[in-house]
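cron nightly-structures :: item 1 of 1
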Amino acid sequence: MGSTMKACNTSIQHTQEQEYKPGISLIEASRYIRAPPENIIKLNANENLFVPQEFMLSIAKEAIEEVDYRLYPNGLVDEVCEKLANYLKVDKDNILLGCGSDQLIDLLMLTFGRSGVTTIHPTFTYYYYRCKLHGIPYRYTVFNRDLTVNTHELSRILEKSSMFILCNPNNPLGHVVSENIIREIAETFKGIVVLDEAYAEFSTIQLHKLPLELNNVIIVRTFSKSFAAASIRLGYIVGPAEVINTIRKFQQPYPVSGFSLKFASLLLDRIEYFRRVWNEVKRVRDWFYKELKKYSKLHVFPSQANFVSFGCNIECERVSSELLKRGYIVRVFSNILGFKCLVRVTLAPISILKGFIKALTEVVN
């Protein structure tokens, strides 16, 4: 019995070491600074703060009344896929829904990435932790200082992998890799190319039609960022129909709740409203970037996502704790591209960001 418990504890510890940890929550932050959660602004998870809570609540109330909760949500899956197909100008057979894009990325790794997954750093750390958890070889190269891709080095390490994943726009920097480079990679790579387009609607580059041309390309997207619906945990894949059918065989039945599907369907009915939201995010992003550029101590990265990141030579612990004391949660990364700290700030309405800039000025100075 004792040896069994010891083995169990060792297994638990091993799993915890391989766990992806999202940013600090409002509750954790409020305990840390001993302030009520409503006095803290969360700018660390790239949630969409441009859509009013009242707007989302009205959709939630409508969704609640339109779902028969006694039934499995087969019909709702078709409804959402048809609306997504219309929005993206693809066929619904090219779409697969899942419980958040993270779950779909995990599924892709298990389906196509067993021989190894390759990416380019810095990137979304979730990829590394899921590969580590599943025992999948994880390989990477690094962006050049000017954020271009070292295609020669990438080609060398891709020879040992069966899957290449690229976060585009990049997280945590916000830049994009050009379509030409991505096409070059996909056309020469024998494995599957996965483009994580979580932030695509905020970008000038959207490649969701590429899988219709290249049968080894898959796009992953989410409703969490562009559609301000992180809580419904809905993501989707766009890919060649035969690849979608293969992935579906490995997915559990009914992965998304009826409520989430109806909520998403109602969001897609309001696509023109969200286009205006995306344009506002871009306008604020340009303003915020210019404001941050005024600080000589910061290296600000151009962004095509719903966040802006900057590098500085202040310790991460100091940056995050001092901003938190002033009521702002941000995401920090140490030792990226030669900076002691990379700070990623979620975009928000200008009234919020003006307060953040005031707090940042106190910290930087």
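cron nightly-structures :: done
The chain is about 45% helix and 15% strand.
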